[in-house]
Write a sequence for this structure.
């Protein structure tokens, strides 16, 4: 029992150390902070303001208001997945090998990485809440709490996915290229910047099989209600079902990330 408790305490301390390291790394990268905020702001005020007169009718209201939850999700999606680039960086500079030979479980290392990346991503997304009054978006404390929890779930899942990919990469450049090819279609087909209703053919099918759709849609529904919610077979998908899809995906990605980390060297 003493050994078990000691092992658990050591693994928890390891996860906390890795989590803090990710936060410190982020705090010391002002360029990353600025670029992480610049793109969502450009989408919200430049893209949103520019095409609002053309598409506001199709979204059933003000387009910038419709876009606001999407740009928060965009910030979290990009930051979550690309936070895993630190694994490739650590591999190139030898720090990853030092972590892998430490007398701690690989699971604790992965959990720390995932929590650190998720914390950073959600923090970046929540900073954008200061723009909510500028586009006419308001929410209650309970809605804010629900949105934070949904963002944390999405960020944790996507960070775990990023770890799966990064643990198999040898060069930072390769990770960046591959993630760009994966993240951009995932984001644009999630319903973050256009409504999911009325899409026909392959586009409608792609949005329904895109895992990010089931993470973005609940966030928008918490803030703006069920108007424009995801439907399958003419029926609105309940938020609880969407959450379960993301939880299942996050669990699978976490298990795969631990397995991939065990194969890393």
């Amino acid at each position: 029992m003493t050994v078990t408790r000691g092992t658990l305490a050591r693994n928890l301390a390891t996860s906390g150390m890795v989590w803090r390291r990710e936060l410190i790394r982020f705090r010391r990268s002002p360029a990353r902070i600025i670029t992480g905020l610049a793109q969502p702001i450009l989408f919200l005020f430049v893209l949103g303001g520019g095409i609002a007169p053309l598409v506001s009718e199709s979204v059933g209201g003000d387009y910038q208001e419709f876009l606001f939850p999407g740009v928060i999700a965009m910030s979290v999606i990009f930051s979550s997945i690309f936070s895993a680039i630190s694994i490739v960086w650590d591999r190139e500079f030898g720090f990853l090998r030092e972590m892998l030979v430490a007398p701690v479980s690989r699971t604790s290392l992965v959990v720390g990485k995932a929590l650190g990346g998720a914390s950073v991503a959600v923090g970046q997304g929540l900073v954008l809440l200061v723009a909510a009054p500028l586009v006419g978006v308001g929410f209650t404390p309970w809605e804010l709490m629900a949105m934070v929890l949904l963002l944390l779930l999405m960020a944790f899942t996507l960070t775990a996915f990023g770890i799966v990919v990064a643990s198999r990469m040898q060069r930072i450049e390769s990770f960046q290229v591959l993630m760009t090819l994966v993240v951009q279609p995932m984001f644009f087909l999630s319903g973050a910047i256009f409504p999911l209703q009325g899409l026909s053919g392959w586009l409608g099918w792609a949005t329904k099989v895109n895992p990010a759709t089931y993470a973005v849609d609940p966030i928008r529904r918490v803030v703006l209600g069920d108007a424009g919610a995801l439907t399958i077979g003419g029926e609105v998908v309940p938020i609880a079902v969407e959450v379960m899809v993301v939880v299942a995906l996050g669990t699978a990605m976490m298990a795969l990330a631990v397995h991939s980390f065990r194969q890393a060297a």
Remarks:
- Residues 11 and 105 are 7 Å apart (CA to CA).
- The mean pLDDT is 81.
- The chain has one domain: 2-263.
- The first helix runs from residue 2 to 27.
